[in-house]
Structure formats: C-alpha cells, structure tokens
Amino acid sequence: MAREFRFLTTSNDLDIDWLSLDNMLYEAVTVPAAELRNACKTPIIEQHLGYGPGNSIDNDPAVKFCRSRYLGKDCYFIAKDGVQYIFSRP
Q1: How far apart are CA 75 and CA 24, in angstroms?
Q2: pLDDT band at residue 42, thresholds of 50, 70 and 90?
C-alpha cells in the first residue's frame, strides 16, 4: 500500500479549523502504530518529536495513533501532549 497520506497540519497551527478538529477528536479510533506508518510518511515527525533508533515512538505511553476524518477527508493523526499531528490525502 502506498503511503498516500501526507502531513497536513498540527493543532498548534493558528489557522486550524477548530470545529473540524473537535469533530476529528470525537470520531477518533485508536489504531496500531504500524497501520499509521503504512498509510503515512511519519519519519520526519517522529524525528521532530525526538524519536529515533533506540527510542521508538511506539514505546511512549503518552502517544496515541488514531484514524478519523478532518475537513471531510479521511485522516490519521498522532496525539502527543495535547498536540495532534494530522495526516490527510492531498
């Protein structure tokens, strides 16, 4: 399966659609990290968050991997410390 979901935004973005974000969180379904990685390009985000070899994001209990909808499109997101890193189809 091609990684067709691309990084879209984070909930720290001041221009984010807050109602859509709220709906995304309400409809979220937790998924395994492997499902998110198969669908999304995550290495840069993982490095940005301080993860890498020997320090896997999978082992952090404060991180959730989810599938939902944002702005009417299917999406995946990584939630850590109240910030969502959202991946969507272009």
Answers
A1: 9
A2: confident
Query: CA-based angle 44:50:53, to the nearest 5?
Result: 80
Question: If you count them, how many residues does the chain have?
Answer: 90
**Strand locations in 21-88 (E):** 29-30, 63-70, 73-80, 83-88
Enter the tokens of residue 65: 């991997």
CB contact set of 46 (below 8 Å; sequence gap of 6+): 52, 57
pLDDT digits (tens, 9 = 90+) for 72-88: 999 999 998 887 889 89
Q: How far apart are CA 70 and CA 23, in angstroms?
A: 8
Task: Return all residues near 88 (Cβ < 8 A) that are at least 6 apart.
Answer: 5, 6, 8, 70, 71, 73, 74, 75
What is the torsion angle, in degrees rounded to the nearest 10, for the CA atoms of residue 79, residue 73, residue 9 and residue 68?
0
